[in-house]
Every structure is written in C-alpha cells, then in structure tokens.
C-alpha cells in the first residue's frame, strides 16, 4: 500500500510541471491569436515562464514576438542577451540567423557586423559567403558581387521569392555601379517574384525615385 502511494505521489509530482507548462504556453498562444500582445509579452517575461521553459527559450520567444511587432530596440536587447550568454554556439547561431535579415533590412551596420562575427564560426562556407555578400550589397552599397549572384541564378534551379531575392541583389548592385537602366530592368523582373514580401515594396520605392 505504501509503495502504491509513493508511486502515485511521484506520478502526480511529475505531471504538475507538464500541466503548468501546457497551461502557460496555451495562455501565451491564445493571447497571440487574440492580438493581445501586451498580455503575450507579460506571459513571456514572467518568472513562471522562465522557471518552466528556461532563460534561453524565454529570450528566444521574446525576440520572435518583438520581430513580429517590429520593435527593433527590444530585438537588439534580447539578441545581445543570448549572444552574451553561456548557451551553446549552435543556439547563438540559430538566433543570429533568425535576426540577420531583420537588421539588414534596417541597414543597422554595427548589429549586422556583430551577427556576422557570430555566424562566421559555425555556418558552412557557402552559407557564410552569401551572408557576407548580403552585407556588402545592402550595407556597404558595393557592387563587386554581380558575377557571383549571376552565377547563382544560372547554377541553381531557383524559383519564386528565392529567385526574386537573387535578382534583387543583382539589380541593387547594378544601381550601385551606376548602371541604372540595367539595374531597373532586373529589379522589374525581381518584383514579379517578390510579391507579398517586404522587398516588393522596396523595389517599388526604388523605381519611383
């Protein structure tokens, strides 16, 4: 009888954290679905959430929330918290990867440079080379990678938004190089493949200038 009671107690003790995690996560997701972002943020920043899910998961999901709300200062703050923490290099890379395009889009040079330093040690050579090209084209406004992008367009069977992004990078470089008519022609092609993305609006703005 005593053994049975002990088993029951252990099972109940094991079930309580699971139930609390489920309740807390459901509360967060329902707040997001209802667009109650203040409540969602409050849940994520709570001591209970950190205790149940851990500091890394807390900061990671806060970054996701702030990305969706376009709160740049908070995205930067919580990205730094993770990059300066003791979590594994793999986890740091995952976060750097997740926010790199966000800061490229906002032309935040210092932050992009910092993220590149993090990505350099863990990403494979080809992926990191592409990240560097993005930095040179979108941040430094250079045009030295036109042939590289053209080669990717020829070698890879790219379609849709992926092809559109490569065309966008080619067109921007042509503009950077003073080849306006060629650049605008390529950007017009890119625009067709980038409908529904932020780059579609960027191209529209460029073509109106």
Automatic annotation (TrEMBL):
Keywords: Hydrolase, Protease
Keyword Protease: yes
Superkingdom of source: Bacteria
GO biological process: proteolysis
Molecular-function GO term, any one: peptidase activity
Protein name: Putative Zn-dependent protease
């Amino acid at each position: 009888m005593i053994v049975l009671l002990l088993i029951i107690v252990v099972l109940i003790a094991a079930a309580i954290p699971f139930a609390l995690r489920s309740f807390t996560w459901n509360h967060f997701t329902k707040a997001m679905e209802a667009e109650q972002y203040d409540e969602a943020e409050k849940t994520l920043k709570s001591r209970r959430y950190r205790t149940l899910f851990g500091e890394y998961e807390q900061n990671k999901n806060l970054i996701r929330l702030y990305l969706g709300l376009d709160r740049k200062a908070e995205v930067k703050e919580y990205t730094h918290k993770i990059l300066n923490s003791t979590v594994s290099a793999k986890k740091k890379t995952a976060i750097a990867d997740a926010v790199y395009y966000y800061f490229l889009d906002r032309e935040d040079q210092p932050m992009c440079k910092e993220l590149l330093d993090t990505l350099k040690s863990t990403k494979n050579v080809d992926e990191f080379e592409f990240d560097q090209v993005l930095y040179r084209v979108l941040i430094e406004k250079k045009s030295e990678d036109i042939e590289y992008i053209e080669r990717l367009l020829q070698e890879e069977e790219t379609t849709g938004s992926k092809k559109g992004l490569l065309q966008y990078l080619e067109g921007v470089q042509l503009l950077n190089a003073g080849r306006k008519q060629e650049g605008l022609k390529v950007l017009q092609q890119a625009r067709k493949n980038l409908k529904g993305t932020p780059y579609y609006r960027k191209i529209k703005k460029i073509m109106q200038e």
